[in-house]
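Lab notebook, bench 4. We co-purified these components, and the gel suggests they stay together. Before we commit to crystallization screens, I want a quick structural picture of the whole thing.
Request: model the full complex, all chains together.
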Amino acid sequence: MDTEIKVFNRFQPFKVIIYIVCIFLAALSLFPFIIMIVNATRSTPEIQGTAVSLIPSKFLARNYEILVSKDMFDPIKGFINSVIISTGATLCAVYFSSLTAYAIVVYEWKLRRGFFTFIMAVMMIPGVVLSIGFYKMVYAVGLANNYLPLIIPSIAAPAIVFFMRQYMIPALPIEIIQSARIDGAGEFYTFNKIALPILKPAIATQGIMCFVQQWNNLFMPLILLTQKKMYTMPIMVSLLKGDIYKVEYGSVYLGLTLTVLPLFVVYFLLSKYIIAGIAVGSVKG
Amino acid sequence: MKRKRVSYAKYGYIFSIPFVVTFLVCTLYPIIYTGVIGFTNLKGSTMAFSDAKFLPSLGQGLWDNFVDTLTAPTFHTALKNTVKMWVVNFVPQITLALILAAWFTNNQKKIKAQGFFKVVFYLPNIITAATIGILFANLFAYPKGVVNDILLQLGFIDSPFNFAISASAAQNSVSFMQFWTWYGNTMIVLIAGILGINPEMYEAAEIDGANGNQQFFYITIPNLKTMLLYTLVTSLIGGMQMFDIPRVFLNGQPQNSTLTASLFIYTQAFSGSYQYNKASAASLIMFVIISVLSAVVFFMLRDKDEIKLHKIIKQQEREYRKKVKLAKQQLLKEGR
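Here is the predicted assembly.
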């Protein structure tokens, strides 16, 4: 008892330093976003007067008017477009990755080991490397300004296959599948009705991560979508850098806020799963 | 029983078809296509691939695009910038992440509100990189910007500093944004790694009287080696593709100081004179660089237990065969 208190006391000053560092870093993480949200409600002259302020002003509506009056930035359209692409891509990614992982884990086939090795080998192929060929191919088949080229490639998501396999090995006992077979279930039916529900937690974490990644993707949409009405949220954001918004500080901050808000909502609702997902995804079996 | 298993094997192939077909069409074919373009004269926004010719048929060298790219000063600058901005971001990132991970996993210190800190530190990583680039461009604005205001008030500078003109300030700003968005992620990965270390090791060390620092340097670091290497290489691969932030922050300016390799490829291919051929060559060069790095990760990620098991099985097979051989020879001898 006595020694315990001593140990506790000895560590106290160091603990204070730890808390100071952590609080500083937390402030560093939050501060830019707080400034952004507050400035979204302030007028350009106010921002030019004092850039740092924690007191909201009353120019929110005016800033929004300016933001959309330039006929460039359309947050609602961008939001809808991003939802379509991200949802489609996420559904494709988690469903087909589960299916592929299922093929690797459940069945014994000759190329199984080789296939898994291959998946790990292609996990890190950078998007930049194939962008020009992909761009030319998409234009050749007339699918430019279409969402399909942004959704379909997600069917082959090696990193998610890898994760689903790692999760499946302990979570999906072969006995369950065998008993389903005895009951006369087809293989595809067994996968859809028995394996998928068991994989729900893994699908949730991977789905969230994949959705956020797709939502934030700038490179591919930027080269494949040229029509304004097809623009995704990140492309809309990059428009805020244009000359027409050069002096409209309040509107730019509002535009940024509008793109961040949906992510904030998703993150604070699901942060538990997201953080667990990163932790699990990084530990190799 | 055995016959039944064989009949199921075909589903392994069937269920892999969507992945394989998509991979072939959306990844492999575009890579090969990009590679082929690298050997042609394809450029200009209107030129179709069918009109493009291979360089040798035009009296030029087959590798001319590659040579041009490799000798182009802009490409050198882009590569150098990419590496430089990555290093300046990664060294503090991994250091801070490691320290935080050690603090958060320390049983004696029992840091409170860990969940809150983790959520907040990770937050910037979830936000669109393009948004962060523009947000910071505004925060770093000159002459009246948030950063300038704060620096002036704290007395670090006497007059506003223009971040968009100074090459090194622009590079450091990009590095800072990368650091700021990624250290939380690295920290969570490392915490998972530390929690995976056998707790008995720490208990034994404690009994032997090792203090916190000793435990960190003699247990945590050595056991975290693979994890640190993994973080290093994935970060390096991601860093080599840095695009969103430099593109929206200052679009490679000033004086190409924030031009990265990906941004170089993008500007070559999709702006100005649409030099698809040169950009393709640059893509392939990047592919080679990144492939070498990926190979390292690949060898690290191999399923070690499975490899061990495979080895044991093979060895047993070998021994079995040896025994059979010996038995046969014995039988032959006896038969004689």
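Chain A touches chain B through 96 residues (CB under 8 Å). Worth comparing against the SEC data before the next meeting. Residues 2-64 of chain A form one domain.
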